[in-house]
Amino acid sequence: VLVAYLDTERRYREINATYASWYGLDSDAVVGRHVWEVIGEQAYASVRTYHDAVLRGEHVSYEGPFVFADGSHGRIHADYVPHTVPDGAVIGYFALIRDVTRLDQAEKDYLTGLANRRRFDEQLHGAIAHAQRSHRPLGLILIDLDRFKQINDTHGHTRGDEVLRAVAEAWAEAMRSSDLLARWGGEEFAVAAPETSLEQTRQLAERLRVLTTELRVGEDLSVRASFGVTACGIGDDARALHARVDRALYRAKRLGGGCVVALEPE
Question: How far is CA 78 from the centre of its chain?
Fold first, then answer.
């Protein structure tokens, strides 16, 4: 963990050895310098709003992309904690930063760049717990690409991979920042939609269905998908949600595919 203390002018006053070694600098070469002088202007531009917030007295915690001093790209988890005096004035702040690039890669699908099933399951458990505790809605969508084996057999697996990447990109652009889209496995995908009722989740699935039908991979290859939809009910756990959304998807496939089927919580 990188640990630093900065003053209100965003100049380093103290850092730990890990912070210095991360940038290949001696501690003496960092202390007294402004943030942008150490992490680089491009990286500072991406995190400046968080520094602004902590200097207003807010405790900031975030995870996001980061450009390191050598120009390489990765992902960090950061906490900025304000240092206040009794009258509430901010006189400095602490920065605690972890490089989570490898962890993030381990939780991503290598082909599409989406969250993988492991990450989806972990976040879904947390979302269900929050929904049950706060009595807030939570929607779930399971998606299966229709006739995907036929695409692979007719056009080849390389073209099949292009289809998976294309639908993942199109769907990701249609999501809110709070939604989680993941590659469930093979040609199946899943969406967890917090603060979203069953009807709102069905509408989201319908938008994704239309996006899919409008998609063209290459010059002529069209794509179609089936969508199963449900929402978290009282007492539901992940197993119950998975079973119900799977039944909804199965019904959509039985109807010939290319459609949305929603099942009410039991």
Answer: 16
Instruction: Give per-residue burial for 49-76: e unless 16+ CB within 10 Å, then b.
Output: ebbebbbeeeebeeeeebbbeeeeeebb
Whose tokens are 């310098």? That residue is 33
How far apart (Å, rounded) are the C-alpha atoms in residues 245 and 129?
A: 18
Residues in the chain predicted with pLDDT less than 70, given as ranges, are 69, 104-105
The residues that bridge with 115 in the sheet, in sequence order, are: 108, 182
Is residue 78 a contact partner of residue 55, using CB atoms and an 8 Å limit?
Answer: no
Helix (H, G, I), strand (E, B) or coil at 87: coil
Helices (H), ranges, the chain: 17-22, 27-30, 35-39, 41-55, 101-106, 117-134, 148-155, 157-173, 198-214, 238-254
Identify the bridge partners of residue 77 per DSSP, sorted by sequence position.
63, 98
Specify burial of residue 170 (Cβ count, 10 A radius: 0-12, 13-18, 19+): middle
Q: What is the pLDDT of residues 194-247, one digit of tens each?
A: 999 999 999 999 999 999 999 988 777 889 999 999 999 999 999 999 999 999
Which residue numbers are catalytic?
187
CB atoms within 10 A of CB 102: 10
